Amino acid sequence: MMRDCETTIGKLIDKQNVAFIGSVDQDGFPNMKAMLPPRKRIGIHTFYFTTNTSSMRVAQYRRESKACIYFCDKRFFRGVMLIGHAEVLEDKESKEMIWREGDTMYYPKGVEDPDYCVIKITVTKGRYYSNFSSETFDVPQDATE
After folding, report:
1. What is the phi/psi pair of residue 103, to 5°?
2. Residue 94 half-sphere exposure, CB side, CA atoms within 13 Å?
3. In this structure, what DSSP letter does residue 13 have?
4. Collapsed DSSP state (helix, strand, coil) of residue 98
5. Contact predicate 128/137, CB 8 Å
6. pLDDT tens for each residue of 118-143
7. CA-wise closest residue to 9 among 103, 95, 135, 128
8. Are residues 142 and 45 in contact, defined by beta-carbon separation less than 8 angstroms?
9. For the segment 55-103, what is each residue's pLDDT rounded down to a tens digit?
10. Mean predicted confidence (pLDDT) in 38-44
11. Spatial contact of 96 and 145, defined as CB atoms under 8 Å apart
12. What does the alpha-carbon distance between residue 32 and residue 22 come to, in Å, rounded to a whole number?
């Protein structure tokens, strides 16, 4: 059993250069996609990713907000699945919050590019795998957000 869930999982997340996000398609089937790591995270309960507004994932989250994120440390064969709900954010404040220099390579019109948006995933529970065992845990929402 993990002693400090947020610290253990936070360290695992911060060392990964790929995140896998899941959504639900129009037929109710799960879909997974490799993404760059989240641009921002608040504890292990809120994650922000950049993506194209025109993407299939955005259309799926708009139709069905159920989402998951998976981080895998292949060196030590451990991982964590975080489950919650996704929101598509297109307001300027959210977009500016995670904008980075060089993002014009993907969004040529800058922060106000209509094809640039933010996916915010709010996590409610998770499942951690390490040392040949798994454990499920709840993720409390931080009142300081």
Report:
1. -65, -15
2. 16
3. H
4. helix
5. yes
6. 999 999 999 999 988 999 999 988 64
7. 128
8. yes
9. 999 999 999 999 999 999 999 899 999 999 999 999 999 999 999 999 9
10. 97
11. no
12. 4
